[in-house]
Design a protein that fits this description.
Layout (H helix, E strand, L loop, with lengths): L2 H21 L4 H16 L8 E6 L6 H11 L6 E5 L11 H12 L5 E5 L20 H8 L2 E4 L8 H16 L14 H7 L1 H4 L4 H9 L9 H10 L7 H9 L3 H16 L2 E4 L4 E6 L7 H4 L6 H9 L3 H8 L5 H6 L4 E3 L5 H23 L2 E4 L1 H11 L7 H12 L2 H11 L5 E6 L3 E6 L1 H5 L1
Parallel strand pairs: 1-6, 1-7, 2-3, 3-6, 8-9
Antiparallel strand pairs: 4-5, 9-10
Length: 445
Amino acid sequence: MDLKDIEIKQQKLSETGNQLKLRFFGIDSIIDQVIESISSWYCMPEFQERPLVVNLWGMTGIGKSDLIRELVNLLEFQNRYHHFDMGELGTGRAGDLKINLREISERNNDEPLIITLDEFQINRSINEMGSEISCPHSRIIWKLLDDGILQFDTDHFYHYENDLIKLIKELHYWKERGLNLKNGAVPLEFVVYLKDKNEKEIRDKSEKEIEDYFSRESNRSFFSSDEIEKFHDWHQGEFLPFTAYKHFFKSLALEGLIAYFEDQDEKIKKPKTLNFTKSLIFVVGNLDEVYKMHNDYSSDVCPNFIHELSKKIDVPKVKEALLKRYRVEQISRLGNNHIIFPSLDSEAFRSIIDGRLNRISERILIGHDIKMDFDNSIKQWIHSEGVTPTQWARPLLSALKYGIEDVLPKVLSQGFRIHIQFDKVLMVETNGLIAEYFSERCKNG
């Protein structure tokens, strides 16, 4: 155990939490819970014997998936992050979790990963009437969440098994007749084999030309480059790159080739084990059964009132809601790490407005060297236009986009048309959006 390394990682986690709080408003306690939940996984993954499952439950549009993506970026796990939408499960290649997990395992070599199972509530095994739903595609999910050890038949070999058996028999045939290889080339005394193998290439050649043709070692390869590439494809890049595989292949004597292909034949008969025990798995979902304030209250109710109601949602209520969608043994595989997002209070909504406007101002200053200020009337208009407590921040972000971000290009272009120069814009709302332009540098100069 490297204590210095653990200390560095703990500091990185702490900084990550602080960065997340600057990006996401009103969920500081949620961020603290997430950081605390993943601390042991991030700092000491070698001690983890099964996947760490962290469940995030909240209303639609609350930013659960965005929070995970930002966490991944800050921890620099982009190349080891995999997002799956349960709504796509069983639909095409993107929804074939079996294929995707196998490819992920082969690329990452059992290293710590972050996996998100998004819209998890869709992957239900019990319908609204309480009857079980047959969903073969979801079985692998529950196994993944259980112990992280998955076993698959190596079905990508099955198409080639007969060819492989025939190939092994052919190799034994020539071995019994004394054929051996040097740098992958067949000795000249086995000209019968060579002529048969290269029938197309020598069809119109004279005996002298055939002799000259086979005098070159490159024309006496036991396997052609195309055949070696086919074997490489069979084993899905077991040796990478192809040039390395080709070099390895040509270095084997006939006995070595027989041993190699017999070993591959044995592998076909054995299931492949994929190890996801070092993974961090986020289960992300919306549970309408516990967030009943969606429908019970009007959209203009006080944010603080909805916030206080949402704070009363606890883990027992979440598990009670899960029982309407999943079997008891499945819920147990989700573990006890349930993080419940509350709705936003008034202060959080104001912080989101201030934060977005500040970022817009920074972007305009950096891109155009113009200071963009927003009057309080703008903030009040955005609040009245976009705050819908029962829908979290999505309507608010929409109001910011169509009300401010989308009109800024027009505001700036108008300023350039009617002013020789300006370096400050003040946005005001008085029965409509008004832009006031100033030239502070000229005044100060």
